[in-house]
Amino acid sequence: MYILPLTYNADTVPETKELKLPSRIESVDEAAANAEAFARSLGLTEDAIYAIDLAVRESVANAVKHGNKFDETKRVEVKLAETGSGFEICVRDFGSGFSVDDIPDPTDRENLLKANGRGILFMRSFMDEVDWAHPEGGGLLVKMLKRR
Amino acid sequence: MADITITERQAGDVTILDLVGKVTIGEGSVALRSTIRRVLGEGKTKLILNLGQVGYIDSSGIGELVSSFTAVNKEGGTLKLLNLTEKIQDLLAITKLLTVFDVYEDEASALASFN
Fold first, then answer.
1. Could you read off the pLDDT of B48-102 as tens digits, one per residue?
2. Within an 8 Å CB–CB cutoff, is residue B30 touching chain A?
């Protein structure tokens, strides 16, 4: 069990939703549908809901493909939380991890025609904060925040 | 129900593919890839992708647009994009792919550009 490094406003009781998903492509839709429904129930704007949906899709797809490498014995854990500062998304895989700094910039001229490698750019573009951590027990944890 | 439907029509020697639905990881991206392969296999190399009814696209879908573009170029053909939604336009701007694709807002202009 790991402890997510969430920061809460002391006066706010966070609402959370947690999912444990198998490492398959269908989990991307399932996570996004849950995130959209949760964000909608909190009354977030359509723009915020779109951003959250896209960030969840990209992060869960990365966890399934590049983290767990489609190994169905490994789960993808998703935690959605309404915190004092905004809507927080944590996605964890149980793969061997990677360094985000090693991902080539997809907007560099030599990378423009590559088929892959734009997911992290979308996460960074649509969310206000994106951070990666290597939690105890292995894998990679990405934590994203969409401010209110 | 499928995430995406792709309808093919001809305007002279130009093939227009009308996409309706989502181009996302999995079914949507695979459907686009297989359609492009099929039409190229039939010798159709002047292509327009009409994206006006694509309600959602993710990085996998954007990647599939790029793969389609390179596959058509490799066959000596041309692929152009038509009717970008605001969201798709945003994503292509973020990825700097608006500098790569030939984009049109109306079908007549897109067709005329092949002449």
1. 999 999 999 999 999 999 999 999 999 999 999 999 999 999 999 999 999 999 9
2. no
Query: How many other CB atoms sit within 10 Å of the CB of residue A106?
Result: 23
Could you say which of A57, A113, A121 has the minimum Cβ distance to residue B24?
Answer: A57
**Domain assignment present for A4:** no
Task: Identify the domain containing residue A40 by its residue range.
Answer: 16-147
Mean pLDDT to the nearest integer, A46-69: 96
> Nearest CA of chain A to the CA of B78: how many Å?
15
Is the confidence at residue A9, as pLDDT, over 80? Answer: no
Is the pLDDT score of A6 beyond 50?
no
The two beta strands, B14-23 and B46-57, are parallel
- pTM for the structure as a whole: 0.91
The b/e string for A10-42 (b: 16+ C-beta within 10 A; e otherwise) is: eeeeeeeeebebbbebebbbbbbebbbebbeee
Asked if residue A8 belongs to a domain, the reply is no
CATH number of A28's domain: 3.30.565.10
At B63, which amino acid appears?
G
- Chain B residues touching residue A116 (CB < 8 angstroms): 59, 63
Residues of A in contact with B23 (CB under 8 A): none
Q: Which residue of A has its CA nearest to B99?
A: A112
Structural domains of chain A, count: 1
- Which chain A positions have a beta carbon within 8 Å of B59's beta carbon? 58, 61, 116, 118-119, 121-122
